[in-house]
TrEMBL record, chain A:
Keyword Phosphoprotein: no
UniProt keyword annotations, A-Z: Decarboxylase, Lyase, Pyruvate
Protein name as annotated: Sulfopyruvate decarboxylase subunit beta
GO molecular function, one term: sulfopyruvate decarboxylase activity
Annotated PANTHER family: SULFOPYRUVATE DECARBOXYLASE, SULFOPYRUVATE DECARBOXYLASE SUBUNIT ALPHA
UniProt KW Coiled coil keyword: no
E.C. number(s) listed in UniProt: 4.1.1.79
Lineage: Bacteria, Pseudomonadati, Pseudomonadota, Alphaproteobacteria, Rhodobacterales
Database matches in InterPro entries: Sulfopyruvate_deCO2ase_bsu (IPR022494), THDP-binding (IPR029061), TPP_dependent_decarboxylase (IPR051818), TPP_enzyme_TPP-bd (IPR011766)
Species the sequence originates in: Ruegeria sp. PrR005
Any Gene Ontology biological process: small molecule metabolic process
Name of the gene encoding the protein in the UniProt record: comE
First-level EC class: lyase
UniProtKB/TrEMBL annotation, chain B:
Species, as recorded: Ruegeria sp. PrR005
Keywords: Decarboxylase, Lyase, Pyruvate
Protein name (record): Sulfopyruvate decarboxylase subunit alpha
Domain of life: Bacteria
GO molecular-function terms, A-Z: carboxy-lyase activity
Amino acid sequence: MIRSEILREIAPILRDQLVVCNIGIPSQELHAIDDQPTNFYMLGTMGLASSIGLGLALAQPKTVIVIDGDGSVLTNLGTLPTIGNNAPGNYILMIIDNGSYGSTGDQPTYTGKKTDLAGMARAAGCDNVVVVQDVDTGPALQKAIAGRRATVLVVKCDSGNAKMPVITMDPVIIRDRFMKAVAS
Amino acid sequence: MSIDKKIVDDLVANEVSFITTVPCKQLAGVIEEVDRRDGIFHIPSNKEDEGMGLCAGAWMGGKRPAIIMQNTAIGVTINTLATLIQYYRMPLPMLISYRGELREPVACQVEMAVHTKALLAQLNIPTYHFHRQKDVEEFDMILKYTFMCNKPVAILTDANFWGGYGDQ
Ligand SMILES: Cc1ncc(C[n+]2csc(CCOP(=O)(O)OP(=O)(O)O)c2C)c(N)n1
Ligand SMILES: [Mg+2]
């Protein structure tokens, strides 16, 4: 499965949750599949989805699901120790590991070679790291939500992108409606 | 009252309750003071752009954030300031040690000091420079201003402000 197929399948699970979504095509796909006020779309700032989600999870009690990418986690590797030492039970980092920089044309990342993101997360102090194959994403995500325990979920899938429109919503509107959804 | 205590008192009075830091020798005292306060959640970050991401999330979650960092990190945070903090219009007080200014003993620190104000000005970031101890009196007003306008705001604090490094 490719990222968009996974997102389509888990959209009913994501709908009721706070979601921070990675830059580029992941956000475009989520926006096109099921736009919700509870979705925070990153329009830039590659790498910081996991950090934004962590700050959000620490500041309020609702579950926060971060949809991140292997390339983005690799560019902000310092996030893993911060998560490992601080993440509260309402934090779920779901890394769509397609072994590539999808948004920029599927150039390979090191996770498709020798680098093991789950191993790095464990070494960084994350004690609940789960690796699943694309087809098993839904049940694994539901389990993580029900578990109320900080989770790093690495989803192994194929590289590839669906053709979706660019998000034209103003960033301040994305942020404002998201904050209202957080506070509601 | 010590400057460290005054700074953290002002943060608390302005309801700042989420602080991320990357240390600098000049900031050691203020970071210690942050750690002493029960009303502040202190989360050290590994890089300043990561810290700004944490602050953005905390603010959207209803907490007032701040970052404490060294001016040498301005370069690594430019993309984050432009595409996250400014683009989504978020408040962020940045208490920054201004290394490489008067009374600096380490020559290399001057190399980023000469770019610091130019980079902040290029980003249209309101910037205050604390050089004498009494400048700290403005800190409370700067915090109010930051959360009024929802912008990143820089407070540069040089060695003279912190009392130098002793006999150098
Ligand atoms: C600092 C920076 N460098 C490069 C880019 C270009 N860029 C945007 S998205 C992206 C790929 C992200 O890959 P990944 O996180 O694995 O997500 P995927 O699209 O594969 O799901 C890149 C390289 C950028 N936006 N910012
Ligand atoms: Mg990828």
